[in-house]
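Reminder to self: tokens first, then the designed residues, so the page reads top to bottom the way the pipeline ran.
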């Protein structure tokens, strides 16, 4: 074991093991993960013992896995016999994707200790391994490299924590990145960040598969969307969808809407909380007593002006009802996906913290995204969209053009995986 690997295990993995052990007594999610991990290994042991190719995809959670889906869909459409194994680190990702139909197995990734990795990879037996975005586990990656398995970091963004910029963590990160066969980034800016950090890395710009995922759903939903009863909204309704919202986002929007709906009765509101727990939904209903809960709406329900979503997994489809979108997180750690609503060709707004989101920065720079810091600014933004058709159409076009110009990454990345499978002689022909 080299010195960097020893350093990694001492400085990162051993403290992480202690944290997981202690925190599992207080965290139901972490306890769920630890209790379910062994049963997911049993799934791997029952995979076909065959010569079929195996591709392993790892994503931290559900958001990152959305970037893997377009690649998996293309792989399976070209070679249905390829065995796809998906792993998650977070319980929310595993719980919501465990029945993903194109995966032959969905499992938890083990904590990155040498013994765990040996056991796990012996069961996975991947011909190609794909890590999504910024999942960087040195023991996994070292063993994959030592066994000659092509390993890619795809849809890569440079790790956000500043700790990696300083010794000894900088040395550890360089060692981690050098284990990859190649790194495919979401943009030229991200490629530059990787190359500035360590110029010898095999870094290429492929684009972001989320654009392909978004456009695939957008195109299909133009045919049918059955989350709400048919004709729930009229063509004259102006629907604002508030996606992945936190309390500060919601309070600002609610105050703005209360001031607007007297003057503009056509305005409607769908709130999709980032964490739609029973407690959170109940608090929202107290603030909006006339609101309806999505799961309780049927074709016989009276139509309401306000809807609160009490489940996860429907946000991208709910954006299809919107004439405008406000994306949450911009008053906290950072805004969530602004590209998702932009794919529908609608104006988008969010709170001011967008430095961790290249999409938000690009949409802001081209005039499709509004940064809002107060209820008064939110009021003015919505009133502008309600009254100025020319400005509304301009922002809508800028949003849609941004997403459409970004499509095509999934085809590039699928081709690279197929090349690696051919190189490993696990696929005879393409």
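Designed residues (430 positions):
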């Amino acid at each position: 074991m080299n010195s960097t690997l020893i350093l990694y295990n001492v400085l990162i993995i051993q403290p992480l093991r202690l944290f997981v052990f202690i925190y599992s007594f207080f965290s139901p999610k972490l306890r769920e993960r630890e209790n379910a991990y062994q049963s997911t290994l049993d799934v791997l042991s029952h995979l076909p013992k065959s010569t079929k190719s195996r591709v392993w995809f790892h994503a931290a959670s559900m958001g990152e896995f959305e970037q893997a889906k377009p690649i998996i869909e293309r792989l399976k459409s070209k070679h249905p016999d390829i065995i796809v194994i998906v792993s998650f680190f977070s319980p929310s990702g595993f719980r919501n994707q465990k029945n993903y139909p194109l995966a032959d197995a969905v499992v938890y990734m083990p904590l990155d200790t040498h013994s765990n990795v040996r056991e796990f990879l012996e069961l996975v037996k991947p011909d190609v391994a794909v890590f999504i975005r910024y999942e960087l586990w040195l023991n996994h990656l070292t063993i994959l490299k030592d066994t000659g398995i092509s390993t890619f970091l795809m849809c890569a963004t440079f790790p956000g924590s500043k700790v990696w910029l300083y010794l000894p963590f900088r040395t550890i990160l360089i060692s981690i990145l050098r284990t990859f066969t190649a790194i495919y980034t979401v943009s030229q800016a991200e490629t530059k960040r990787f190359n500035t950090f360590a110029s010898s890395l095999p870094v290429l710009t492929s684009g972001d598969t989320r654009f392909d995922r978004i456009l695939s759903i957008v195109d299909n939903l133009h045919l049918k969307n059955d989350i709400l009863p048919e004709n729930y909204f009229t063509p004259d309704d102006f629907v604002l969808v508030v996606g992945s919202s936190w309390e500060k986002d919601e309070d600002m929007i609610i105050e703005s809407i209360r001031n607007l709906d007297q003057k503009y009765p056509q305005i409607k509101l769908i709130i999709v909380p980032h964490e739609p727990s029973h407690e959170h939904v109940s608090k929202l209903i107290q603030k909006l007593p006339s609101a309806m809960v999505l799961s309780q709406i049927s074709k016989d329900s009276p139509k309401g002006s306000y809807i609160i979503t009490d489940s996860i997994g429907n946000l991208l489809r709910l954006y299809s009802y919107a004439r405008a979108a406000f994306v949450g997180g911009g008053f906290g750690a950072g805004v969530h996906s602004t590209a998702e609503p932009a794919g529908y060709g609608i104006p988008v707004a969010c709170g001011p913290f967008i430095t961790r989101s290249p999409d938000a920065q690009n949409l802001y720079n081209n005039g499709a995204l509004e940064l809002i810091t107060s209820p008064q600014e939110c009021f003015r933004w919505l009133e502008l969209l309600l009254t100025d058709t020319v400005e509304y159409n301009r922002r809508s076009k800028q949003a849609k053009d941004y997403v459409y110009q970004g499509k095509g990454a999934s085809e590039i990345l699928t081709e690279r995986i197929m090349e690696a499978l051919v190189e490993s002689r696990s696929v005879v022909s393409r």
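The CA atoms of residues 49 and 377 lie 60 Å apart.
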